[in-house]
Amino acid sequence: MRLVSLLASATEMVAALGCLDQLVARSHECDYPPDILSLPVVSRVQIDTGASSARIDEQIKRLAQSTLEPRDAAIKALSIYAIDVALLQELRPDVIFTQTQCEVCAVSERDVTRAVEQLTGLQPRIVSLAPYRLDDVWEDIVRVGEALDRRAQAEQLVQDYQQRLTRLHELTPRQGKKPRVAILEWLDPLMGAGNWTPELVAMASGVNVSGETGQHAPWLTWEELLAADPDVLVLAPCGFTLERTMQDVPFLQQHPSWQSLRAVKAGRVYAIDGNAYINRSGPRLVESAEILGCILWGALPDISVDERAWMRIE
């Protein structure tokens, strides 16, 4: 079976199910596990990702409001990505993994459908993932497993992930006052974290104050952030590595309201690699919750996380 993944989380699911040897191409955002980095890339970003957070936001909004015509060998629709149709045709995939959840996060089902329509004689199966809650992520893992003829293995993976989250919840304090947590998915302008993130906070025995489970991330004003006044503030911009996030921290620190935040006064501001964790709806959401547990409560017995994935901001 020849697989193409246009979604980073789907690539990680394929890896977890032991099918990386069937993957023949990836998206520009698929970067884990490292073994896949040598594969052909069938999508590209159409914005300057090295720009400031505010500039990236402006570019995305402008592209989202524009209807672009196909050009060269790529489809340019309302998403911020272009698909290399010629390369897809050359690779002749049997299955293409994509998603319908967010056209900013990855190549959308609509773009893939348009691209496939141009592939004369090819009819690959398109498997679309649509995660909004943790239960949706588990269903997506099973959906990927079914496409790979590994449903039983996928169901076992889901059970293992759920047991790890239960174990985390049991290890964290469940009595007394729980810390109020705000996770920012974007820094300029401010954006809270919705979808599955409030569930991750809850599994780490925190109280989320910056978004709702199953809902898209909400834009926030500084006034709203001040009103929420969280005990713990976590910076996890979507698509940003830890190093890239730290580049934007001075912007926050220069805002006149920054020093008024309870979390800042208490020294409880943290940054997480939002690209690999928190915002990627795949297997590493479990470790994302474990990282939050360590942030909120310190070292936990039998819980080991990637210490390079997060840091406290002085």
Radius of gyration, in Å, reads 20 Å
Content-based structural category: alpha/beta
**Quick check: average pLDDT?**
87
Q: What form results from the Cα inertia axes?
A: globular
- Which range best describes the helical content: under 10%, 10-25%, 25-40%, 40-55%, 55-70% or over 70%? 25-40%
Terminus-to-terminus distance: 49 Å
Number of helices: 11
Oligomer: single chain
Stretches where pLDDT falls below 50 for ≥5 residues?
67-80
The arrangement of helices and strands along the chain is EHEEHEEHEHEHHEEEHEHEHHEHE
Number of strands: 14
Sheet bearing the most strands, described? 5 strands, mixed
Lateral strand order in the biggest sheet: 11-8-12-13-14
Estimated share of beta-strand residues: 15-25%
Key terms:
314 residues, alpha/beta, five-stranded mixed beta sheet, four-stranded parallel beta sheet, 37% helix, globular
